[in-house]
Amino acid sequence: MNMGQEDLMNTAEDVADQFLRVTKQYLPHLARLCLISTFLEDGIRMWFQWNEQRDYIEATWNCGYFLATCFVLLNLIGQLGGCVLILSRNFVQYACFGLFGIIALQTVAYSILWDLKFLMRNLALGGGLLLLLAESRSEGKSMFAGVPSMGESSPKQYMQLGGRVLLVLMFMTLLHFDSSFFSILQNMVGTALIILVAIGFKTKLAALTLVVWLLAINFYFNAFWTIPAYKPMHDFLKYDFFQTTSVIGGLLLVVALGPGGVSMDEKKKEW
To answer: Which of 42, 115, 179, 180 is the most exposed place for a label (fewest CB within 10 A)?
Structure first.
């Protein structure tokens, strides 16, 4: 890296640090709200589309009226209940495990397992929950200041690593394999940024850049409010919009909390 590039990188990091100083009190709250948004929207949708969801599950799995109703009810209560617990910071770890279960259940029930794009997005959503789980462990330990901890090899560090790696799967679904200059440039920059987040190098700056990039893509390509509600594309774009918003929430947690102990940023401090 030459001097000009290094100066540009330092300037960008200074801007990111300034942003963090200004928003540090609000960023974790915003990150959690964004992260649970897809579960909140889906739980509300289960209520308003109760009959449609039940009939779909009954017809797809031939499981009968009762089991299909239980599926919809479990999704509604599990998602809305988990969102309330996370936002109120009560039993956050149990809420995260419950939402992990909802992701796994929907992956099977809606045959997402065989759709690579949706599977990768669900895994990215799981990465966001892993980061939230790591944050809740951090808060729990802070209540016992002075008590010896397990140090940098604690499970929290590996949760943060796993969360970062899973989060970047979202961006793999956004790559466009065509020969236009804009697509090639977007793929190169996007790939560089997701690698930086995954290995934990210049993590906060890379994650913040991805947040801005993903926000722009989300509002441009997933503008469901421009499509009449009766058209199937409205629900499809709405689903995509809130899933993307949840991944943005996970990235904001990376920005707020840092990459954790298993990262190049942390190892640099030892060099």
So the answer is: 179
Q: What are the tokens at 178?
A: 């065509």
Task: Please tell me the predicted confidence (pLDDT) of residue 16.
Answer: 72
pLDDT at 189: 83
Spatial distance between the Cα atoms of 137 and 199, rounded to a whole number of angstroms:
22
Structure tokens at 257: 């909390």
Quote the tokens at residue 156: 């929290």
Helix (H, G, I), strand (E, B), or coil: what is residue 144?
coil
Side chain identity, residue 258? G
Q: Phi and psi (nearest 5°) for 218?
A: -65, -50
Query: Contact at 8 Å (CB) between 243 and 42?
Result: no
Q: State how far the alpha carbon of 128 is from the alpha carbons of 17, 221, 267, in Å.
A: 22, 22, 23
Any residues with CB less than 8 A from the CB of 176 and at least 6 apart, and which?
183, 186, 187
- pTM for this model (two decimals): 0.84
The more confident residue out of 136 and 144 is: 136
3-state secondary structure of 122: helix
Give pLDDT, residue 140: 53
